[in-house]
Amino acid sequence: MVNGQKVWNTSAHHADLGMLLVRTDWDAPKHRGITYLVLPMRQPGVEVRPILQMNRHSSFNEVFLTDARVPVGNVVGDVGMGWDVARTTLANERSFATMKRPRFAKTTGRVVTEAQAEADDHFATYVWYPQRAGRADLVVERASANGTATDPIVRDRIAALHSFRMANEWTALRARA
């Protein structure tokens, strides 16, 4: 059984399964003694609360666990070695932070179709909210259209947005290396 709380979980409100790191050995060094579990999300004891963002979307969630059950077969890797597994998933998530739409296999099936639908839903947020995805070019177009492109404050903010996007892309490249 697992008890606790996770915050800032992306798309937990859509998930059937969740990733969970649990401390299984309190005497081990900080990056050891952690076990990686696959948590069935749709069960009693798992409460998902969407976090409403300023754009009225809820990409992130709080997850509260009260006596949630995880089958023994849902341990990923070795018990106590979950941080090694987590580093791999974190690298993947950080590379996704560039906000580029993923490419899907040319095969079809329920899993591919569901993944494509989830990606479509996720990226729909960024179509009308370009600065969230670091699309400085779209913000420049909007500023030009409404006559604010020469405003020094707007120009500073666009430059900052471009800088953040480049730093994000470089971080993703480092994570993939």
Put the structure in a nutshell.
With 177 residues, the protein is α+β, with helices and mostly antiparallel strands. Helices cover 38% and strands 23% of the residues. Helix 3 runs antiparallel to helix 4.
Blueprint (SSEs and pairs):
Layout (H helix, E strand, L loop, with lengths): L1 E9 L6 E7 L10 E7 L5 E6 L8 E9 L6 E2 L5 H15 L13 H18 L8 H10 L6 H25 L1
Antiparallel strand pairs: 1-5, 2-3, 3-6, 4-5
Fold and architecture overview:
The protein is α+β, with helices and mostly antiparallel strands and about 180 residues long. It has 2 domains: about 1-95, Beta Barrel (Butyryl-CoA Dehydrogenase, subunit A, domain 2), CATH 2.40.110; about 110-175, no CATH class. It has 4 helices and 6 strands. It has helices at about 80-95, 110-125, 135-145, 150-175, and strands at about 1-10, 15-25, 35-40, 45-50, 60-70, 75. The protein has a 3-stranded antiparallel beta sheet with strand order 1-5-4, with no helix packed on it. It has a 3-stranded antiparallel beta sheet with strand order 2-3-6. A hairpin with an 8-residue loop joins strand 4 (about 45-50) and strand 5. Helix 3 (about 135-145) runs antiparallel to helix 4. The longest helix is centred in the C-terminal third of the chain and has 25 residues, at about 150-175. It is elongated, with a radius of gyration of 20 Å. It starts with a strand and ends with a helix. The model has no long low-confidence stretch (mean pLDDT about 80).
